[in-house]
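User: Hi! I'm a student and our assignment asks us to look at how structure tokens line up with a sequence. Could you show me two examples?

Assistant: Happy to help. In each example below, the sequence comes first and the structure tokens follow. Example one:
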Amino acid sequence: MRFTTGTGIFMLLALSFTASARENYTAPSAGTTIMDYLNSEPDLSSLAAAMKLPLGFETAFSHTPETNNFTFFAPNNAAFASMSQNLKRFYITPSTRGRAYLGNTLMYHYLPVDVYKTDGGVLFTDTFSRVQTATFLFLGTQKVGEDLVLNRRVKVVKGDIPVAGGVIHIVDGILDPTGMFFDDEYAVPKVKQTFMAGWELPY
């Protein structure tokens, strides 16, 4: 299924209306939102800046009601510093195309509908598994020794940070949707997820 940045934003806004959607709308204020946390954490300043580039992202991630359920993987500053030149060329650019690629990448870090904790024994197990992101593309997950690893290379460095409606896990690399694992994906076990419209079931 082809994904566009607009599709991802629509999914977010369908769950939490933005202030621009209705003139008199008052955004939910209970709890710390994703953007609240990113802006308060010095080691996530690069990500906080990146979230302001694609149209609508900052607003959507600032208004996540407590009734939402999601898991968000937040790349730290070291992840942005070590970004490949190819990623920089496409994602960190003022062009409309560059911002669209950046938005697509950010949505690949977002798992809607479910809150997965690092010690829950669901998202990270000894068996390499797959979980579907907001882009509808799969993300590989596995526990390797004491490390929680995504797409066989990116590690969780700090997990289970509670925010309004979900949880944040800080990771040491940027998850590139074009680097989605290409094993025989339907032979790879799928992490249990709550159904969301647009997903094909059963897997």
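Example two works the same way, sequence first and then tokens:
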Amino acid sequence: MKTLFDNCNVPFVKELSRGSFLSCINYDPNFNTLIPQDFSLALIQSNKAEGIVIRPLNLDSKKFGHVMLKIKSEDFEERLRRKPKLGDFSSLSMSIQPDLFLNFINKNRLESVISKEGSLGRENEDRFLRLLVEDALKDIKECSDIGKKYLSMSKSNKEKVHHLLFAEGKKVIQKYIEDDLVNL
């Protein structure tokens, strides 16, 4: 593929590394992007890479489909591994902790939604809250560890999870708007 792109003068992002799966999975995704220097663009200080993509070279795509693994840098992570302070959710009868769902609602995900949808302000806060929760739910459903449990939940428990996500999303959006106003 590289030869084809080179021969046709098609710009492309070069691979960072090639090696065993273990060496690739251990590649540190927290680095400044190399794209500006590869394309002779002006360098921007602290221009972080979003992460890395690992693609297997010797995998039967007809059998397994298009396989790739994305590892995002900490600055772009849309699922945080944290333990938020929670109220009493003992009525949420399920075999999974509510904080696992709340990990999907954070500033990075909100900024990702904003980059797709436009500016966030007090006038469109509700729209962005809905979009933020929809984006989180999409990832929750696709997540192998939590998705299966979410999809098998009762309607009542799903409604409780939605309530949690909306409440956490509202906090994230309000803090984002407040921080934005302070930084004007």
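Here is something you could point out in your write-up. The radius of gyration is 20 Å.
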